[in-house]
Design goal:
The complex is a heterodimer. Chain A has 4 helices and 21 strands. Chains A and B meet through helix 1, strand 1, strand 3, strand 4 and strand 7 of A and helix 1 and helix 2 of B.
Chain lengths: 414, 79
Amino acid sequence: MSDAVKQLARSALAIPGLVSMAQAAAPANSEAGYQYTYYTEDDSPDSRSDGGAQERYTIQVHQFYLMMPYGSNMSWDVEGSFETLSGASPVYTYKNDEDVTRVYMAGASIERRYDLYGSGRYYWSQAEVGAVAGFSVENDYTSLSSGIDGSLQINDQMTTLSGGATVSYDTIDPTQDYSDPAEQQANTPGRFAAKDQNKWQFSVFEGVSQIIDMNTVVQVGTSVTHLSGYLSDPYREKKGAEVPYDIRPDSRTMFTLTAGGRRYFAGLDGALHLDFRFLADSWDIISTTTDLSWYQNYAPGWDWFVSNEVDFQLVPSIRYYQQTEAYFYEIPDHGEADPFYTADTTSYYSSDPRLSTYGSLSLGLALKTDFRDFSWTVAGERYAANPSYGFNTDEETPGLPAFWRVTSGLEFRF
Amino acid sequence: MKIKQDAVLKTGWLVVACLFILGGCTTTAVQPWERGVLAKEEMSWSPNRLETTLNGHIYFSKEASSGGGAAAGGGCGCN
């Protein structure tokens, strides 16, 4: 199989969202990469914030990967990350005596998270299988996951069928400021309820990609994910309340439909990327995600650039997301009663802004510079979420995030 | 709830129909020596694997939707 076909197979198989999906045809070279990201959220609005700190999260992320062929039919790779988080997050949203929506913020904290994943793949001429396993660790949360996937090329390698399954098991051990259980329950009822809880997640997915012509490839995919266990947010709580301020169903099933296309325009030496995802779940959330990117190549013809294989790629992108609210999303009215929820409350409820009806808009710009076997990328993103972006003009959701992100990464092929 | 379940079922049938249509669509065969453009990095589904991982984790933490393939993100996502 030619290098071009191998590269094509690697390009055409992956389903959006997968980290190490089907690559078809064993890689000929090794690759390594490192990427640093600085992420900072806008402060919580002064006029709508109570409690601890208005400064929301600043996160620094270090990522790396190493991928190497093993023999002529196998490859293995590792990928990991380390991140430090500092700042505050919304605890709960409520309406005050004047019916003004306000956010109670947590105090600032510093946290760390590590993850590491390893995978191996076996390749045939027109098929491949892979397996992945890994873990993610925070001081109050541990996640173990594993998965398998495979792909098969048919129809003169014009069509690729792919699919797989993953399973993960998470354990929760929320931080507690009090040693006495009675004090824990009184002061941190959410964390007390979540102590030593766990959750399982199962996901299956399949996809079909199709080469349309020399410049166009499209794909569709579908997935079903089922979660069961403790799915509430343990840190959404109100001191002195009888029960946590966030009680969600103990199961959730999500269904997605994805579609995507890649089209190269020879006259412009650029490629258009379009990806779409539809999601519906058993919490009554329906969402759509649309990504649009343009990859513009530029290769200077000057001798030094040509001899050193220097070229550039500029990638502007836009992402639009919108969702409907979960059936148990509500903003408690503290004007009516305080605490709003009692031990007699039997329904599910949450004021988590991420479960409300809203939309978000993201603009990105990246510049990649290739130099011989190295690639250096600098990228930035501005993201903002707002109810009005999701055509919701009836509610205010001051806890929704907005952030800036700057990323720089280096890749090396050897 | 019933309405949403109906929507899911209808969408499921739509997916199945799309897969059959795509699987059965006729395209002009593109020979291996004609696939140079398709092999370009900018034509891949995920040109930057670390960026793909990071995006999945960020959006998983900030929005109620995730996945579309395998499980996205690791960790609590509470913040």
